[in-house]
Amino acid sequence: MKALIAVLPGDGIGPEVTAQAVRCLELVAARFGHQFELTEAPVGAAAMDLTGEPLPQATLSLARSADAVLFGAIGDPRYSDPSLEVRPEQSILGLRRELGLFANLRPVITYPAVYHASPLKAELLAGVDILVVRELTGGIYFGEKHRTETSASDLCSYTVPEIERVVRLAGSLAAARRGRLTSVDKANVLETSRLWRTVVNRVIPAEFPGVAVEHMFIDAATMHVLRRPADFDVIVTENMFGDILTDEVAMLPGSLGLCPSASVGDGRRGLYEPIHGSAPDIAGKGIANPYGTILSAALLLRHSLGLDEEAVAIESSVSQALAEDVLPADLAPRGAAYASTQAAGDAVLARLG
Ligand code: IPM
Ligand code: MN
Q1: Which atom of ligand 1 is nearest to the CA of 273?
Q2: pLDDT at site 61
Q3: Where in the chain is the domain with CATH 3.40.718.10?
Q4: Which is the closest atom of ligand 1 to the Cα of 239?
Q5: Could you tell me the distance, in angstroms and rounded to a whole number, from the CA of residue 219 to the centre of ligand 1?
Q6: Distance in angstroms (rounded) separating the CA atoms of residues 274 and 257
Q7: Which tens digit of pLDDT belongs to each residue from 62-112?
Q8: Residues of the chain with CATH 3.40.50.2300
Q9: Whose CA is nearest to atom 4 of ligand 1?
Q10: What average pLDDT does the chain have?
């Protein structure tokens, strides 16, 4: 098949990890007989340096015209002051909004080879396979904001259609997995959560009768995902709760560096990025973990291009590399030798071969 893939490496370790994922996509294209046109564009602080804007029009147009977007990371210490008017983060928020990417899928599985890297005991990690579906274009992130000298407010609002579409997606994903859906909210306090719960209770039994729903408050959820992570299948939640919960859940496999994500909307187009940030402290040293970005490329193949076999080939190559102890610095035991970014990429390519 032919596909146009926009590659937005961004800042910090973004370009290093993206380069490895691009090599994997190129090898997949050669091995499976596809034509991928991979076109790069600047985003985040890198784009601010070039154009003054974190999301230049040309980058947005490329993303719009592409079948999928592969995104690295954004953020730079030079622009880390949260009160700046123009900041790198605006690029990813703008892309989500402009491309209508209303759901963020963050799958988290654990790998026996790196149980040692997890802050949790190995006995809790066996069989963990969680998919968090985070609402991505609503809630407190995008509500009206006010600021005076002495007060500030961020509005959290949701409409029924905004909740329905993400809940429906989560329901269909749960139906295709183990049939369990946990909806996370704060319905004992928040009106938006009470509306959320009503929609879940209407949509899931009617449209996905085989899916068992449970509701959980966000504070309890943050505890249960650590206490009994293997019990969870699909978790659906609003934007802010999902932001926090996914960083927590991403520690189960041992490092943020291993975790991919897919941001999707109505059509097939999506944006794929590792869930880690730009890690300026290790940028340019060639030691960043590229697996999260490589696994994001696998999600890209599956969700935007419908290439499941190719996605599985990448995923099993990463699993094999981990099983054979090709461990980047964030996963290697303290003091042990570790694989460079390039060596980890090489290991995946060799197994994709
Ligand atoms: C994420 C990030 C973003 C978010 C930031 C960079 C705006 O933390 O993708 O989870 O809060 O959504
Ligand atoms: Mn986040």
Answers
A1: 9
A2: 98
A3: 1-107+257-353
A4: 12
A5: 20
A6: 7
A7: 999 999 999 999 999 999 999 999 999 999 999 999 999 999 999 999 999
A8: 129-251
A9: 243
A10: 97
